UniProtKB/TrEMBL annotation:
Name of this protein: MORN repeat-containing protein 3
Signal sequence interval, chain numbering: none
Keywords per UniProt: Cytoplasmic vesicle, Repeat
Pfam families attached to this UniProt entry: MORN
Reported function: Assembles a suppression complex (suppresome) by tethering SIRT1 and MDM2 to regulate composite modifications of p53/TP53. Confers both deacetylation-mediated functional inactivation, by SIRT1, and ubiquitination-dependent degradation, by MDM2, of p53/TP53, promoting a proliferative and cell survival behaviors. May play a role in the regulation of spermatogenesis.
Positions of the UniProt region annotated as Disordered: 233-266
InterPro entries named in the record: MORN, MORN3
Compositional bias (Basic residues): 245-254
Top-level division of the source organism's lineage: Eukaryota
GO cellular component: acrosomal vesicle
Subunit architecture: Interacts with MEIG1. Interacts with TP53, MDM2 and SIRT1; the interactions mediate post-transcriptional modifications of TP53 by MDM2 and SIRT1.
UniProt xrefs under Gene3D superfamilies: Histone H3 K4-specific methyltransferase SET7/9 N-terminal domain (2.20.110.10)
Location in or out of the cell: Cytoplasmic vesicle, Secretory vesicle, Acrosome
Amino acid sequence: MPIFKCPPKSQPPWKEWDQKAQKNGLRHQVYAVNGDRYVGEWKDNMKHGKGTQIWKKKGAIYEGDWKFGKRDGYGTLSLPDQEKGKYRRIYSGWWKGDKKSGYGIQFFGPNEYYEGEWCSDQRSGWGRMYYSNGDIFEGQWWNDKPDGEGMLRLKNGNRYEGYWQGGLKNGPGRFFHLDHGQLFEGFWVDNIAKCGTMIDFGRDEAPAPTQFPIPQVKIVDPDGVLEEALAMFKKKEEPSDTGTRRPRRGKTRRLMPETTRTSGESQVRIFQLLKPVELPLEE
């Protein structure tokens, strides 16, 4: 008795072609319509895993991790250097959702770069910026600008330690003029010092100290200050118009100026309590 076999069901040719076109796993170079090309791993027709993307328009190259068609993980972005004829590294670090996120290093030029934290392609968090003129900023960033506590160290050695907002000095801070041996401590608004105190700081070791040290603060008219203080106390002890009983004869204390110097800084005590003296009161 003959055995009958069911012939295999045929499928349309386009299904077979579509299955062959599905990209999964490691693939050789795949070209896009605009000329971009990619070599690496795929998953469900999306770049996923390790791979290298080359953009035709700018010539940029990205080598690193991908996740569902976007740069995600650790990777390096480079651009061609027309002068040297080779590629120059622009960014090395972490990515998330096709944007710089996490710790990374961004090169803005041969001698200018940033190393620190990123969020959505912007410097946010802690970071250190090396400028081409030799200045260095280290501190907190927000929306690609210094924001929060930070220190700016200038090329000549002077530095500012304090608060920032929107890339400008805002709030309390200290500016060390180490080249002249002085320290200014005060309050800034949009990079302008509004108020504060200036004292000598390391003047003996400064390379270019000021001609004269900052003098001690003294009272110009100590006798006048004393008379004014005594008059104020006398006025407090005078009887009121309501017939209140006069206070008893008592003792008060004389106020005199005094100048002290502590740790190289001029500090002034306007008044010091000295020996008690008798003040006559009306009978």
